[in-house]
C-alpha cells in the first residue's frame, strides 16, 4: 500500500512537468504563430487575398460566431463579396500553445471586430472569443485548418 501511495505521489509531481514541457521548437513556433495570427487579421481587414490564400489550408473549416461554416474557397469568396467585412480587428488577448516539436499550434484569444456602421450610423462591434488550429505544412508553412468563434456579450458601462 505504501508503495502504491509513493507511486501516485511521484506521478503527481512528474505529470505537470511532462504535460507542460515544451521543446525549443514548440516555444519558437508559438512566437511565430502569434505573429502570423496578427498578420492574418491584418490581411482580412486589407482584403489581401494573396496572404489569405496562403495562410488558409485547403481543408479549412471556418465556423463563424453565428454557427455558419465555410471551407477555404467559400470564406475567401465571402470577403470578396462583402459578406464578411472587417474595418478593424483588435486583438485583446492571444495565447498560443505549440505541440509536436513545433509542427502544430492551438491558439485561443479574444478580439473585437469593427464592422461597417449600422444603418443608423452607430458603431457595429463584434466581441469574439476564438480558437484556431494551425498546422505546419513542410511545403506551405503554417496554415489555419480550423477557426471557431463565439460572440461575447457587450461590456456594459
Automatic annotation (TrEMBL):
InterPro entries to which the protein is assigned, alphabetical: DUF4440, NTF2-like_dom_sf
Keywords linked to the UniProt accession: Isomerase, Signal
DUF4440 domain ranges (all copies): 34-144
Transmembrane portions of the chain: none
Gene3D superfamilies listed in its UniProt record: 3.10.450.50
Secretion signal, residue range per the UniProt entry: 1-21
Protein's name according to its UniProt entry: Ketosteroid isomerase-like protein
Gene Ontology terms, MF aspect: isomerase activity
Pfam families noted in UniProt: DUF4440
Amino acid at each position: 500500500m505504501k508503495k502504491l501511495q509513493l507511486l501516485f505521489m511521484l506521478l503527481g509531481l512528474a505529470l505537470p512537468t511532462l504535460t507542460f514541457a515544451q521543446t525549443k521548437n514548440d516555444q519558437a513556433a508559438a512566437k511565430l504563430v502569434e505573429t502570423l495570427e496578427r498578420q492574418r487579421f491584418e490581411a482580412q481587414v486589407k482584403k489581401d487575398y494573396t496572404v489569405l490564400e496562403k495562410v488558409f489550408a485547403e481543408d479549412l473549416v471556418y465556423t463563424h460566431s453565428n454557427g455558419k461554416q465555410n471551407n477555404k474557397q467559400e470564406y475567401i469568396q465571402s470577403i470578396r463579396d462583402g459578406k464578411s467585412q472587417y474595418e478593424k480587428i483588435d486583438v485583446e488577448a492571444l495565447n498560443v500553445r505549440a505541440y509536436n516539436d513545433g509542427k502544430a499550434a492551438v491558439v485561443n484569444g479574444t478580439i473585437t471586430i469593427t464592422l461597417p456602421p449600422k444603418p443608423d450610423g452607430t458603431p457595429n462591434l463584434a466581441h469574439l472569443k476564438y480558437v484556431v488550429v494551425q498546422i505546419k505544412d513542410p511545403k506551405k508553412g503554417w496554415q489555419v485548418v480550423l477557426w471557431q468563434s463565439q460572440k461575447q456579450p457587450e461590456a456594459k458601462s
